C-alpha cells in the first residue's frame, strides 16, 4: 500500500511538473481566475459599446464625437477578439458583471447630467470619464496579457496584447484632443 501511495505521489508530482513546464494549467486556481477576469472585461466591453454612442451624442466637439465613434467600432472589435480568446481557451464566452465598468459608465453619465449641453466643459469631462475607462482597460488587458503568457497561451497573449495596444492608442488620442484645444477652451468658458 505504501508503494501505491508513493507511486501515485510521483505521478502527481510528474503531472504538476509537466503543467509547470508547459505553462498550461487549465485546472489550476490561477487559470480559473484568468477566465473569471476575461468574463469581467467581456461584460465591460459589451456595456461600453452601448455607452459610447451616448457619449458621442453628448459631446460638442466634432473631433471628440469622431473619437467616440471610432472607439465604439474598436470596442466592437474587442468583443469579437474576446469571443476568439474564449474559443481558443475552450470556454464559453460568458459575461460576468464588472462593477468597475458599471461605476465608470455611471460616472460618465453623471458628467453629462452635471454639465451644460454644448459646452467644452462637458467635453473636458467626457474626455476625463473616457480616459478613466481607458486606464481601467489598460490595466486589465496588461495583466491578462501577462497571465496568458505565464500559462503558455501564446495566441491568446498576442490577441490580448493587440487590444492592449489599441487601448493605449485610444488613451493617447484622447489626450491629444484634450490638450490641443478642449481643455484650454473649457477653462476660458
Fold blueprint:
Blueprint: H1 2-22, H2 29-58, H3 62-88, H4 99-114, H5 120-150, H6 154-187
Helix pairs in contact: 2-3, 2-4, 2-5, 3-6, 4-5, 5-6
Description:
The protein is an all-alpha fold and 189 residues long. The chain has one domain (28-187): Ferritin, core subunit, four-helix bundle (Ferritin), CATH 1.20.1260. Helices cover 84% and strands 0% of the residues. It contains six helices and no strands. The N and C termini lie far apart (84 Å). The relative contact order is 0.14. Mean pLDDT is 89; it is low at 1-24.
Strand content: under 5%
**What is the percent of helical residues?**
over 70%
| CATH homology group | Ferritin, core subunit, four-helix bundle
- The end-to-end distance, rounded to whole angstroms, is 84 Å
Q: Please name the CATH topology.
A: Ferritin
Mean pLDDT: 89
Provide a compact summary of the structure.
The chain has helices spanning 2-22, 29-58, 62-88, 99-114, 120-150, 154-187.
Protein traits:
single chain, 189 residues, mainly alpha, Ferritin, 6 helices, disordered N terminus
Amino acid at each position: 500500500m505504501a508503494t501505491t501511495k508513493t507511486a501515485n505521489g510521483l505521478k502527481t508530482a510528474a503531472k504538476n511538473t509537466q503543467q509547470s513546464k508547459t505553462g498550461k494549467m487549465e485546472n489550476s486556481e490561477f487559470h480559473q481566475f484568468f477566465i473569471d477576469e476575461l468574463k469581467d472585461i467581456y461584460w465591460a466591453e459589451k456595456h461600453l459599446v452601448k455607452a459610447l454612442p451616448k457619449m458621442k451624442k453628448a459631446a460638442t466637439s466634432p473631433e471628440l464625437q469622431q473619437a467616440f465613434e471610432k472607439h465604439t467600432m474598436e470596442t466592437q472589435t474587442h468583443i469579437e477578439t474576446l469571443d476568439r480568446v474564449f474559443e481558443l481557451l475552450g470556454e464559453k464566452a460568458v459575461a460576468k458583471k464588472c462593477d468597475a465598468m458599471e461605476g465608470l459608465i455611471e460616472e460618465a453619465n453623471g458628467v453629462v447630467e452635471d454639465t451644460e449641453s454644448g459646452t467644452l466643459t462637458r467635453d473636458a469631462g467626457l474626455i476625463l470619464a473616457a480616459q478613466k475607462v481607458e486606464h481601467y482597460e489598460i490595466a486589465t488587458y496588461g495583466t491578462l496579457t501577462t497571465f496568458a503568457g505565464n500559462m503558455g497561451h501564446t495566441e491568446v497573449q498576442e490577441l490580448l496584447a493587440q487590444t492592449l495596444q489599441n487601448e493605449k492608442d485610444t488613451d493617447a488620442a484622447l489626450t491629444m484632443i484634450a490638450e490641443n484645444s478642449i481643455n484650454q477652451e473649457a477653462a476660458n468658458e
